[in-house]
Amino acid sequence: MLIPPHIPGVRFPGLTHPGVIGTAPSMELLNIWNEREREVEETGLQSLKLCEVLHIRPLANLPSTKGCFLGKIKEGTPDWERIAKEAARTIPGRENGGNCDIKNLSRGSKVYLPVFVDGANFSTGDMHFSQGDGEVAFCGAIEMSGFLELKCEIIRGGMKEYLTPMGPTPLHVNPIFEIGPVEPRFSEWLVFEGISVDESGRQHYLDASVAYKRAVLNAIDYLSKFGYSKEQIYLLLSCCPCEGRISGIVDSPNALATLAVPTTIFDQDVRPKTNKVPVGPRLVRKPDVLRCTYDGNLPTTKNPGATM
Fold first, then answer.
1. What is the predicted pLDDT for the residue at 38?
2. Which of 78, 184, 210, 244 has its Cβ near the most Cβ atoms within 10 Å?
3. Does residue 263 form part of some domain?
4. SS3 content of the chain, % helix, strand, coil (to 5)
5. Whole-prediction pTM value?
């Protein structure tokens, strides 16, 4: 059970899981990754409308010697320089699994990973005690130390038999997993809806990312009425066992996403009432809790490279 010191009146059980689990890419797949991510990095601001509302970090993290960690390979050697300039950064999940951050990959789960090289080079790590769907604060899961006890089996020819490539090569496949039997069970939820209309009021076409962002912002604004700061709720939604869903993706022009927050994690009743919002827990202001610069109004994300 977690009782966060920075967010009074909240407690919830953990759902431990690895944020990273996957196999190694082949050289051909690695080249595909680098080519497509370099294209979005170089042309994304001009071609991708989604960047206009979500461009708050680099569009992609391309291979670079800066901040590169290559294990036992000695830095400064020719091998280190060569590998650092072609090795894919491990921030996003890809065809091999990787940093998928799926909170339901907990005890008892089964993961079916494609294999691209001899020996698979399976790896895992980035242990989380708890995380909300989407990990919306980017590094918002509760990290922990730990170990995994795993059993591995090989399904020979399994990629060809079970995985249909969704792309131009046989390498464009994705993992499958089974959810384990161990996870927190909640029966009462408060569900926040979002549609693909951004903070400026601009309509986007069936954009699930914009819709989910709106659902999260709606939840932050609502729950902050119960005595919490928006920063506290932002952190909470990234680490508590909330459930994100794409509820509608065919009724143009709006995609519809929902964020379900279990009400029993709060020590107070946060459901709407006919009377005024009750006074909630007193805010705990500590210097190690990050603060936003806005005064309470939800800001419109600015991107100087975008066109309105």
1. 77
2. 210
3. no
4. 20, 15, 60
5. 0.76
